Amino acid sequence: MKKYNFPFNGKFGNFGGKFIPETLVPAIEELEESYKKFTKDSNFKKELKEYLENYAGRPTPLYFAKNLTEYVGGAKIYLKREDLLHGGAHKTNNTLGQCLLAKKMGKKRIIAETGAGQHGVGTALASAVLGLECEIYMGLKDTERQKLNVFRMKLLGSKVHPVKSGTQTLKDAINEALRDWITNVENTYYVIGSVVGPHPYPMIVRDFQSIIGKEIKKQIRKINGTLPNAIVACVGGGSNAIGSFYPFISDQEVSLYGIEAEGSGIKTGKHSATLAAGSSGILHGMQTYLLQDKMGQISATHSISAGLDYPGVGPEHSYLKEIKRVNYKSCTDDDAIKAFVILSEKEGIIPALESAHAISYGMKLAKKMKKSEDIVITLSGRGDKDVEVVQNYLNGIRD
Amino acid sequence: MYKTNRVTKKKKNNNNNNNRIDKKFYELKRKNEKALICYVVAGFPDIMSSEHIITSLINGGADIIEIGIPFSDPIADGSTIQYAIQKSLISGTTPDMCLELASRIRKTFTNVPLIIMTYSNILYRKGYIQFAKKAKECGIDGFIIPDIPMEESKEYLNAMQNIGMSTIFLVSPNTAEKRLKMISRICTGFLYAISVYGTTGERQGFDEYTIESIKRVKKVTAAAANGLPLAVGFGISNPKHVRYMINAGADAVIIGSAIIKKIQEIENKETLLNTLNRFIYELKNSCK
Ligand SMILES: Cc1ncc(COP(=O)(O)O)c(C=O)c1O
């Protein structure tokens, strides 16, 4: 593979770009310039490092899951413990980075969208610690299935706006956040929660999340002196996945697996497997794979996991699919629930439902691999927020 | 990035003569009138009603009609238009039905400029070239796509301008001078200045910055080759607003949410059509 160097002019091959209303153009340009400036600034880097380490708890452990490995009977399974990061998910890597950037840019007001509520919590806590005002948009349906996180955001001092338009999930929360940004563009910073949206967001979020992959590389080398044979991560917008993969993209010997939510199964039409079943289109400022109908209307999606319930995907993933560097697979609601229970019982770790998708596929993959091989699964978050949904599901109550 | 400019300019000159939008502005200028542009969401409340609504708008005095093709995720629109779009989609409206609507209007009104307003994915999905061709056959004169800024416009411009379709771009109160000039070079038909920071929707009044912004844009359009007309939209809902924008330098005003609101509120169709007709008549009077 030639040297991987994307985005190039704001694009990942044919994907990405900035399909945004004119009012946002100056804001996006200001963001790109500030990002370039501050990420070169040694004070900014030092301050962010301080927050990531002493406030949020980085580096997170790379844990050898001995029980799970024995249970599966294949490759050695390592878990990258983003569930132990402050806030309970990888989202904090990005929110600390972006909120600190916002502060340096002189923005006083922060807005964000959230699906599972993890990005909302991450943005709320970063805003609290940095002294910024914060408002969060969340689909009405998601506020109901992730109640715990709504309360956490409020405790952390943020306002939560339930979004009643469209499908009342993540897609519509992003629409509403974009509308707020168009209206308050002069004093507001929009913290996007995944590697989606117009350029430079997919790049910025990827860069802040790449700390996951950098640590994996260091940690696994320290354990056995080599790189892992495979890395597995779940894909909603794709931020924990790209954060895990990015430092390994040029290491061809490492297989990369991104796992999307298959909901009730692709054939049923009730799913969120964008890369598996979608087609190229334009949404939320980016050209990327989308779930859409023949006319170009965006489809309603389904997943038991609010954080994966999204009809789009980061443009870099669309590109990585096209050049076949990453294998994109999917996992159903049923399989995710099974993995959720297995990890809880075998390792005493309750994973987020999003992460359970990666655990499920990771176990299948490990089983097919040699015992001498290593597989890293990114455990993107912890599952406290999901216990009610899982309890209902196991009792036969489904939405 | 802006290599399209040169090609564009040449095309612009070729097509100016027979475009209904250019003709309309030329005609109004001679009469010393400003243009009244009316926006409707096609298929709200249903596609048959849209035909009657547009007819009553034109009979009331609308100079140009913007036909909104509903898209599931209209990020530049406020709650009124969002509501109409959602209702239209639920009732089963497709882009083809909207184009067929245009083609029926075109048979009755041969000279009224018809413009499509929608979001990029609707065009992208069918293919820019194919969409443009079909629209041309249906009597469409131009396009307004709020999520295609200059940077992403190359393919779109090529498809549109090859067949003499006007490409109307938007500018905002925060659009810098240099950028205004670049946009006015690739823009044809008229330039669409957004009055405020925000999405579409009615407003009580406007701040000083709206006036300043219109004056600033007007300087650029007045200096552009062939004098690109300047239309102002977002939030305009009564004759007072219309005068306000015209006094600031607008060559046209765009009315959207105020029309949608009436469609939403008045259930009896005959009452609705009469109300719209009178409403537009009053607004048009303020353009004279
Ligand atoms: C724990 C967890 N994992 C994964 C995701 C999916 O996001 P992404 O694909 O950007 O990592 C979310 C989103 O809410 C999440 O909360």
Identify the notable features of this structure and list them briefly.
heterodimer; A: 399 residues; alpha/beta; four-stranded parallel beta sheet; 16 helices; 14 strands; B: 288 residues; TIM Barrel; nine-stranded parallel beta sheet
Quick recap of the structure?
The complex is a heterodimer of chains A (399) and B (288). Helix content of chain A is 44%, strand content 18%. The mean pLDDT of chain A is 97.
Largest β sheet strand count, sense and barrel closure of chain B: 9 strands, parallel
| Ions, cofactors and other bound molecules | pyridoxal-5'-phosphate
Q: From the alpha-carbon coordinates, what is the Rg of chain A to the nearest angstrom? A: 19 Å
Which overall shape of chain B is indicated by the principal axes computed on the Cα atoms? globular
Roughly what fraction of the amino acids of chain B lie in strands?
5-15%
Q: Give the oligomeric state of the chains in this entry, treating copies of one chain as homo and distinct chains as hetero.
A: heterodimer
Distance between the termini of chain A: 45 Å
Helix content class of chain B: 40-55%
Uncertain ranges of chain B = 1-17
The ordered H/E elements of chain B are: HHEHEHHEHHEHEEHEHEHEHH
CATH class of chain B: Alpha Beta
Notes on the structure:
The complex is a heterodimer of chains A (399) and B (288). The radius of gyration of chain A is 19 Å and the shape is globular. The N and C termini of chain A lie far apart (45 Å). Chain A has helices spanning 25-40, 42-55, 66-72, 91-104, 118-130, 140-145, 147-155, 170-183, 201-209, 211-224, 239-245, 274-277, 315-322, 333-347, 353-368, 387-394, and strands at residues 11-12, 15-16, 62-64, 76-81, 109-114, 133-139, 159-163, 188-191, 230-234, 255-263, 279-283, 286-290, 326-332, 374-379. With 399 residues, chain A is an alpha/beta fold. Chain A has 16 helices and 14 strands. The radius of gyration of chain B is 17 Å and the shape is globular. Chain B contains 13 helices and 9 strands. Chain B starts with a helix and ends with a helix. Chain B has a 9-stranded parallel beta sheet with strand order 5-4-3-2-1-9-8-7-6. Chain B has a single domain (6-285), classed as Aldolase class I (TIM Barrel), CATH 3.20.20.70. Residues 1-17 of chain B have low confidence and may be disordered. Chain B has helices at 4-15, 20-31, 47-60, 79-90, 95-108, 120-126, 128-137, 154-161, 177-186, 208-223, 239-248, 257-265, 269-285, and strands spanning 35-41, 64-68, 114-117, 142-144, 166-168, 170-171, 191-194, 230-233, 252-255. Chain B is α/β, with parallel strands linked by helices. At the A-B interface, helix 8 and strand 11 of A face helix 4, helix 6 and strand 6 of B. Pyridoxal-5'-phosphate is lined by residues 89, 115-116, 118-119, 194, 234-241, 307-308, 352, 354-355, 380-381 of chain A.
